[in-house]
Specification:
mainly alpha, single chain, MetI-like fold
Length: 326
């Protein structure tokens, strides 16, 4: 099992390096350092001298990949790719091109608000989806099953933006149970996070229930379930001790994808609810076309996704003895 885990960890390094190179190449296909300088300086101050000064001040006055004017290893290290992108591999995210603030410090400061939104949404959505899907699967073909499937399609067809606007209007404006938007550090943050968490959970229910219902239907129709029922085992024991255990691998496979979708969805939640998290930070950087921040957030998202896949592989070995003993 140790060799299996080490092998999975070694896959992370080339994956992140490939993402790093791809993001860098795609960005500089449409933007050059001169374009970045002109946009940052504005049309009035974008004369060649000012452009060169901006590039020198921000570290874009060197070649992108290969510095022929340098000698030795400096041909690789004295490049934009090494100083701006490859350095993220060892945790150096650099500074913002627009505000000159440390990106690493901003990520650390904004990680907790984002985690306070993402973690409850992820856990609540996973538990509710699995539990409801299991109940619906046992009532296949019934009125409850049909009504639930119809409701799931309705939930999936409504945009997250509609849930946000409806939640703010109903819970914040009419009932005044929660603030419309904002954030406070400490324990007071929960009165600001309750509404975005509720919106995030409700907007994620439809697709999850339909997916897990399909997984449980495949397991319920297998021979070991018929054998368990023939032995007289209670239905709850069959579902939670046998069916759920055997459905864990496809459920775990979907978890990293859910984490990625939660990150993307949190951009909208954090932006509309004025939560100072990583999602709002990314949207602000996109609007300002701050390549340093965008590059760092894409790398961070890739890193979290790859780590999620690694944890999924480790969980595979825990729930499936064939992998652990293979």
């Amino acid at each position: 099992m140790l060799a299996y885990i080490v092998r999975r960890i070694l896959y992370v390094i080339p994956t992140l390096l490939g993402v790093n190179v791809l993001v860098f190449v795609l960005f500089f296909l449409v933007n050059s350092p001169d374009d970045m300088a002109r946009q940052a300086l504005g049309e009035k101050n974008s004369d060649p001298v000012q452009v060169e000064r901006w590039k020198e001040a921000h570290g874009y006055d060197v070649p992108l990949f290969w510095n022929g004017n340098a000698s030795g290893i400096g041909r690789v290290t004295k490049t934009v790719f090494f100083t701006k992108s490859l350095s993220m591999m060892w945790g150096d995210f650099g500074k913002s091109d627009m505000t000159h603030e440390s990106i690493g410090d901003e990520i650390v400061r904004r990680a907790l608000p984002s985690l306070c939104v993402t973690a409850p949404i992820f856990l609540a959505t996973l538990l509710i989806n699995v539990f409801l899907a299991m109940l619906v699967a046992t009532a296949r073909g019934s009125v409850t099953d049909r009504v639930t499937q119809f409701a799931c399609v309705v939930f999936m067809s409504i945009s997250t933006l509609i849930y946000i606007i409806a939640g703010q209007y109903f819970f914040a404006k009419l009932l005044r149970w929660t603030p419309v938007s904002g954030y406070l550090p400490g324990l007071d943050c929960w009165k600001f996070l309750a509404l975005p968490i509720l919106v995030g959970v409700i907007s994620s229910l439809g697709s999850g229930i339909r997916l897990y219902r399909t997984l449980f239907l495949e397991e319920i129709n297998k021979d070991y379930v018929r054998t368990a029922r023939a032995k007289g085992l209670p239905e709850w024991q069959i579902l939670f001790l046998h069916v759920l255990k055997n459905a864990m691998i496809p459920i775990l496979t979907n978890v990293p994808l859910q984490l990625l979708m939660l990150m993307m969805g949190n951009m909208m939640l954090e932006n509309f609810f004025s939560i100072p998290g990583l999602g709002g930070y990314t949207i602000t950087a996109l609007n300002a076309q701050d390549f340093a921040i965008v590059r760092s957030m894409v790398f961070l998202g890739s890193f979290l996704y790859v780590v999620g896949l690694l944890l999924t592989d480790i969980c595979y070995s825990l729930v499936d003895p064939r992998i652990r003993l293979g």
